[in-house]
Structure formats: structure tokens, C-alpha cells
Amino acid sequence: MHDKILLSHGEGGKRTRDLIARVIARYFDNPVLSPLFDAGLLGRIGGEIAFTTDGYVVTPPFFPGGDIGRLAVCGTVNDLAVCGAKAVAISCGLILEEGLPMDTLERALAAMRDAAKEAEVTIACGDTKVVERGKGDGIFITTAGVGVSADGWRPAPSEIRPGDRIVLTGSMGDHQVAVLVARRNLALDAPVLSDVAPLGGLLLPLLPRFSGKVRFMRDPTRGGVGVTLNEMASAANARFVLDEARLPVRESVRGVCEILGFDPLYLANEGKAVLIVAGDAAEALVAALREHPYGREATIIGEVREGGSGVRMRTLAGGVRAVDYPVGDQLPRIC
Amino acid sequence: MCLGVPAKILETGDGAAVVELGGVRREISVMLVDDVSVGDWVIVHAGFAIERLLEEEAERTLALFREIAESDAFRNP
Amino acid sequence: MNRSMKYIDDFRDPATAKALVERIRRDAGDAPIRLMEVCGTHTVAIARGGIRPLLSGAVAMLSGPGCPVCVTPDGYIDAAIALGRERGALLASFGDMLRVPGKSSSLEKEKGNGLEVRVVYSPLDAVTLAAATPDREVVFLGVGFETTAPAIGGAIRTAAERGVGNFSVLSSVRTIPEAMGVLAADPEVRIEGFLCPAHVSVVIGSDAYRPIARRYGIPCVVAGFEPLDILLGISMLLRQKREGVARVENEYSRVATSTGNRKAQDLIRDVFVPCDTGWRGIGVIRGSGLRIADRYASFDAEVKFDAPVVFAPEASACRCGDVLKGKILPVDCPLFGKGCVPEEPYGPCMVSGEGTCAAFFKYGA
User: Fold this and answer.
1) Domain containing C140 — which CATH number?
2) DSSP letter string over A60-97?
3) Chain A closest CA to C164's CA: distance in Å?
4) What total number of domains does chain C contain?
5) Which domain holds residue A139?
6) DSSP character for A22?
7) Do A226 and A126 share a structural domain?
8) Do B23 and A334 count as a contact with CB atoms less than 8 A apart?
9) Which of A190, A268, A326, B4 has the most CB atoms around its CB within 10 Å?
């Protein structure tokens, strides 16, 4: 096998077959994928079906706490989980840049295999293309995922009402800061790990256990908790009020934010969920989350109030400020 | 225009120092301050220490805040 | 929220904040006292802390032209774009400048058209970049007030010492006291107290405000950027008003002194020379700028590329000038929230996330 990806690896001939059979199939060895038909045959699936897709272009591809492969599996699994669906199968579309070290590809594939195993999801099909050097940033991955909602829970933003609580499953900003530090162009040395994790095991058991109490869930990826809450408040036409003192942020993430002038509310997370929960069940639900390794720092961060819509926050100083959509990605500032 | 943070000096070198804030470390220039030592606190802006933070003065300000908070608690039990 | 960062969290204590707010309300007069802060970092801290509504009725907080990004003229952005597009320069900039609109475009938009712009945290990173790319001209966009001037000067000196000849700075440095003087003298603005910038004061010293306090009878208090600093600073201004005095006081005594950082001042005097300069939305303020001294001309991008930045006052419905002078609040501008929003800013106050209008828009009044 070559030590670098060549254009011929994507041209459909012998090199492509070799890449699939001798590299990719070694990592994705399961009965659905192994026949290498043009489609993965999943058989009959019982329950309501959910379907999602996402593209992953993170740079650098490997960063403390995770990598593009783990991200590609968890992101899609989590989009299904917050809609109440257990991921059954995912696809893996690879776009590789000519010259990509084979070792980089293999590390990403191994990570996908391990994440799929943890999430109990089958990598059922895939595709590989190669683009010319300079036309792709190393490796891009697209995954689509099919999931099943066994007991029919659906996101119900219209059920959100005053008195409901806003629950966050753990600390904000870890992923984006880990990637930023890994890019190395800000010369920061920070012990931050990406939180990338599959959340099906954390979230799905809560739905029957707290039947009728969980109104809506989302995973706060790009744009962070701030953007996600605005989207949720908009969908529900509700007013959310956060309590700044209760926002969970790790000390080292805070350190980076203080230095660069970032607001952790708008930093991306890849292993967290926001839930809107009935007031009378929130504390018990938080306790249940804390029983799970991915929910140890779960906490109530705010509540749904009467009147109006949008997101506000009670500040440490005792005032109230709006938490609006940001314009774009945060940039280091001196102002 | 003045985003600056208090950080502690961990190492000093040739016109430079390594500072730490909340477990985050960065190398900065100390060309704007004289004779910094390990353990000193400085304000860091745009990769430079722009001045020392005087811990005694900080304590004095904090003591004033405590006094204000206590007298308020006394008024509003 | 993790609450263990020394010298930061101590100054955010909610119970003390409450006590200070009550103290301010007790000391307040019949009409709200008109206080102006002249630092973008104060603008943001006040907005993020939700402090303005906490003090309504007691204090009218005016936001002055303290955001160097906001007061940078659109001619500067156009000049920077031209250096990149036409002269092949690799631009290095603080993140704050990316979305500032020039006459027709911004650095961010031009990036989409192939303009090379690197965001840096420190001007020294731009020198390092230049040293690593000897075949490219690297131009650093040197925007800031006196807090940042020593850092920009330090980068120029470092480049000079290391012989990094492909590095230069497009300077847009302004100084605060002259602008404060213009505002203090304006009868329409009616300032009763200045909340003076923490880190500018660290460099220039609190004595720099004594001429303003004396000449205009306006109390000046240097205050830090944490909520407790701001509230204590406001309380100190109120007390001066009650006493009928106009002094300079220093709340930020843990860092700022009366004479400032002499070493930083010496460096500024070595690298820069005062000059007249234009402020977006205000116009030319005499002696309020710093241009690069002749002895460092080879690091002055305007000289090196023979591309002087032209200041031309804007003509539009935008009322940024009045917002920057504290004459009106953002909501009083006809464009606020209509033609002018953070994603498509019309004028300087909406430009930087720390501009007055942007802060109002993002955080509420």
C-alpha cells in the first residue's frame, strides 16, 4: 500500500478497490458493509425513522480529546439522539486530498470505528473520492445517519411553557477551544480537551424514564449554547432567562476566553445537549444525567418565563442582558 | 480597546516570560516592565505585560468591597 | 460557573455588586447624573453586566468614542485592502478589524476575494510571521489607543533590532485625553463625570486627566473593567458630585498609578510622534493621533509603500458622530436596527462588537 493518497485511489480502478479492500474495510469490518454492494442492506427497522446528515471539515484533523473521525460519527449520532432516535446506521463519505498521508486516513478510520462501536451504530456504506492537491483541506468526511425512535418521543417545542427549566449536560466551549489551541497560531498552551462524545446512551434512557417531561433537546455545536437557545426560543416562541452564575465553564476554557475576549456562550460543543424540561422533573433529571460519565457536570442553567420571546441572562452584577445571535465566529480581540 | 488580564509569571527569560491564567500558559514580552520575577502578577494585553498588578493594593480594594458589602448587609438583613 | 480565577472573580462578586448598586441609588440626585465612559472595553463590560438598567434613574451612562476600531476611518480600511490587493502585502490584524466596513468592502469580504489576512493576538506575532515569510511584505494593522501603542511600538522596535525588513505597520493609533477634551468642551454633551479607561491610564497615568478635571470642572475616576470596579468607579464619581468637587481619583489602584508606566511612555516617545488625526463620526481632533517617527520610517507602511491614508468625513443618515459624543443613544438613530445591524453595519458604532450600537443591539439597552 502506498504511504500517501494518490489521484488514482479515487478513480474507480484497481487502486480504488485496493484502498477499500486493504485499508478501509480493515477498519469497517461488519456484515452490512463487507459485501461491498452499491448499498448497505439494513433489513426491516421497527419504529419511527429519523434521518440526518453532516459534513466535517475540522482543521487540524487531530486535536486534544478527539479527531475528525470521532467527530464525524458522534455529530451525526447526537443529531439523532436529540430527536429521540437511536442511531442504527451511518454512511461515510470521504473526500481526500491528493498527498494525504495514508497514516492520517488510517487514524481517522480507526477513530470512526471506535466511536461507532461506542455508539453501537453500524457504518453501513461509504464512498471515497480524491481531489487534486490544493483542492481539499486534507480530509473531509460527510456522514448521514438513520435512527429509530422506539417509543415515539418527538421534539415538541410547542409544549414548552413558563416554569420549564433549561438543562445543560456539562461544561461549555471545550471543543472549540481545544481545536483553536491545536491550530497553534495563537501560541496558547492550554490543557483543554474536546468534549466530543456520543450521547445516545446519556439521553435516550431519559425519555421513557421522564415520560412527558422532556419538551425539546438540541446539541449546541457551532455557535454554542447561545445560538442553540435562540433557535429553541424561536421555535417555541418562548422567553428563556439564564443565570450567569450557573453556567458551567472549565477554568482553562475561561482562561482562554479571558485572554482572547471570547464569550463561552458562543463556543462550539460536541459532547453536550441542551434540554427543556418540565419544572417538576428538572432536578431529578439532572441527577439522572449526573449518573452517566458524559453528564457529570449537568446543571440547570435557566428557566422559561412568561411573556415575550428571546433569550436573556441575569448577570453576576445583578442586571439583565440579552443573549442574541452572534454575527459570525468569534475572533480574538483587543477591544 | 484595553482587554487585559491578570496573569502570574511562571518563568522569565530574555525579554520574555511565560505567564499562566486559569491553567493556560503563554509566552509574552516583558519589554514594557522592569525586573519581573517568577510569582509576580502582571496585566497582559496583546502579548505584552503592560504593568505589574500590586497584590497589596488589590487586597486593599477587596477589603473595601467587603466593607461595602457588610454595611449593606447590616442595612438590609 | 468555575469561580476561582484570582483577581478576576473577586471583582465579580454578586453580593458586593448589589451593595454598590444600592449605595449608588442612595447617593443619586433628583436627575440622573450624566457620566461618560470613553473605553470600548467599558462599553462592553457595562453592556454584558446589564449595568445600565440597574442604575436607570440614578445614572445616565453615556458611551464615548472609546473604541479604536469604531473611530478608524473607512479610508484606513480601503488603504489596507489596497496594500493587500494591489501591492501583494500579507496583512496581519487584530480580530476586531475584520468586519469594519470601508467605503465599499471590508477585510472579511475581501478575504472571500483572495485577500490574505491573518488574525493575530499580538503585534509580535506579525513580526514572527514576517520573519518566517521573507519573500512577502507583511503589513500589521496597528489600531489602538495608548494601551496598545507600546505593544505596536515594541513590535516595530523588535523588527528593527532583528532586521526584519519586510515588516511594516499601517498606523491608526489615537490618544484619549484630547478626545475627552473635545467632548468636555461641547455644551450639548453635558458630561458630569468621566469614567476613565483602566489600561490607557495604566500607560499614561491618572495625572493625565488633571487638566480636564481642572479646566472643565468634571470629576474623573479611573476604573477597572470588572463589574465591581465599574460600580465603585461610578459611586466615586457620584460622591464627588455631591461634594461639589472635580478631582482625579483612581479606583484601579492595583495596576494604574498617577504617573503611569514610564518605560512604556518612553517607548511611545521613541517610536511615535503626535499628530492631528481624523476620528470616524467626529472629524479631525488636533494632536489626537500618533504617527510613526521618521527614524522608523522604513517600518511605516504609508511611507514604505508611498500610500498615505486619506481621511474623508462621511456623509450619510448615520448618526454615529452623535452617538460617539454621547449626545444620543443608539435607539435614537434612525438607522439603528433598520438599515444598520451587526451583520451589515452602516457606521462605526455598529461595526466592532464593542461599538456602542453593537453593544446595545447584542445585549439590549
Assistant:
1) 3.40.50.11740
2) SSEETTEEHHHHHHHHHHHHHHTTT-EEEEEEEEEEEE
3) 20
4) 1
5) 7-149
6) I
7) no
8) no
9) B4
Residue A327: inside a domain: no
Given A149, A167, A198, the domain boundary residue is: A149
In single-letter form, the type of residue at position B40 comes to D
Q: What is the pTM of this model?
A: 0.94
Q: In this complex, which of B1, B22, B25 lies closest to A334 when CB atoms are compared? A: B1
In a domain, C231, yes or no: no
Neighbours of A161 (CB within 10 A): 14
Q: Which residues of C283-302 are buried (b: 16+ CB within 10 A; e: fewer)?
A: eebeebbbbbbeebeebbbb
Q: What is the CATH number of the domain that holds B23?
A: 2.30.30.140
Are the C-beta atoms of A173 and A272 separated by less than 8 Å? no
| Residues found in chain C | 365
The three cell numbers of residue C361 are 443591539
pLDDT per position as a tens digit, A49-95: 999 999 999 999 999 999 999 999 999 999 999 999 999 999 999 99
3-state DSSP percent of chain B in helix, strand and coil, to 5: 25, 40, 35
Using an 8 Å CB-CB cutoff, list chain B residues near A258: 5, 21-22
Q: Look up the ipTM and state it.
A: 0.96
Q: Which residues pair with C283 in a beta bridge?
A: C279
- Tell whether C225 is covered by a domain: no
Is residue C99 situated within a structural domain? yes
Instruction: Give the closest residue to A289 by CA, choosing from A251, A248, A229, A254.
Output: A248
Among the listed residues C269, C108, C87, the one whose alpha carbon sits nearest the alpha carbon of residue C170: C87
Q: Is residue A333 part of a domain?
A: no
pLDDT digits (tens, 9 = 90+) for C205-225: 999 999 999 999 999 999 999
Query: Which among B22, B26, B45 has CB closest to A187?
Result: B26
- Helix or strand holding residue A276 (H, E): strand A274-277
Strand partners, A217: A275
Residues 6+ apart with CB under 8 A from C148: A334, B1, B2, B45, B46, C68, C142, C173
Selecting from C6, C10, C147 the residue whose C-beta is nearest the C-beta of B2 gives: C147
CATH number of the domain bearing residue A256: 3.90.650.10
